[in-house]
Amino acid sequence: MMSAATNTFESVKAVILSAHKSTTSTDKVNFYNSWAENYDQDVTVLDYRAPSLAANSISSHFSGSREAAVVLDVACGTGLVAKQMKRLGFGHFVGVDGSEAMLELARDSGLYQDLKLSMLGEETLPVQWADSFDVVVIVGALSVGQVPAAVVRELCKSTKPGGYICMTTRSNRDNLEYKGALERELKQMEEEGLWSCVEVTEVEDWERAVSEQEDGYISGAVYLYKKLQL
Question: Would you say 224 and 54 are in contact if contact means Cβ atoms under 8 Å apart?
């Protein structure tokens, strides 16, 4: 009963709106470190569907051995995406996140073979990871005030030729400019012959709206790309 009382929609909304005040990367990390403990319960209150939507998108197109596939989970947080992918038969995960407290919880989940602390957008992914992963997924971090859209080039670089890159973003008013920049980058990389678009799924009921200007649910999008064989 205790958590139901504390994790009300209004309290979760207040937490998320306070995150928007975090302007420096240090502020952001501090925010996520302090949020980590309640994160899973809070996003449940929000009816946050992005992790399962991304996992389902990958699952519907991945034809190789799921047990053998190595998945890089970028901005992995507490491990919500890995949890969904595990349910669909994937078993080998490497996670990256900028918050030590989130990584602690991801470590406790027992889902990851390796976890790395890294601030995406400020640090590049390890050079030795180039062409290494069967699947690279980033859920939640590609949005205004989080990581720059250009980060998607790093994701592509770390994927094996023929591997999949799955990305999500929100389509609400606050994020439309960012979404436009992200889609231009995705298209530019397609024109450069780095990857091809497998599918883009626009989803109406992405999660409950928290901004003062919006009611009900906001929409979002899942992008699935395949790295081309060079």
Answer: no
How many angstroms separate the CA atoms of 70 and 90, rounded? Answer: 8
Which amino acid, residue 117? L
Q: List CB contacts of 119: < 8 A, sequence separation 6 or more.
A: 25, 29, 98
CATH number at residue 213: 3.40.50.150
* Residue 178 CB neighbour total at 10 angstroms: 18
pLDDT means per 10 residues in the chain (230 residues)? 62 83 83 94 94 98 97 98 98 97 97 95 92 97 93 97 98 95 98 98 94 89 94
Q: Per the domain annotation, does 68 fall within a domain?
A: yes
The verdict on residue 2 lying in a domain is no
Task: Count structural domains, the chain.
Answer: 1
